[in-house]
Amino acid sequence: MKLLVLILNKADLTENVLEAFADNGIKGATVIDSTGMARVIGEYHDGVFLGSLRNFLDPEREHNKTIFTVIEDDQTEIVKKIIEDEIGDLSKPDTGILFTVPVDFVEGIARTDERKKD
Predict the structure, then answer these.
(1) pTM value?
(2) Which CATH code is given to the segment(s) 2-34+64-117?
């Protein structure tokens, strides 16, 4: 199993990604609001007031969405295809970041093979 992390810069695409995940057997995910380092540093250097004013005047500077989900090893290519179809090429600037890390233990979620037994 793997923990898949998708940092999505275009937050308006979050629902599309999650629906495509569900349509392809990935039934659970956690989504949190997140902010990239460059934005945080920019707000710090600009001061709280100027950073807040810039965010108000520049609505395109929205926060990211970070999606966490545990997937089976054989679902990695499916997820990559979904993300490419829904978001586009992640190598382009301001698109997103995708990575996985191995999971050696999980409790509290039903694995795909366990769901099939029910």
Answers:
(1) 0.76
(2) 3.30.70.120
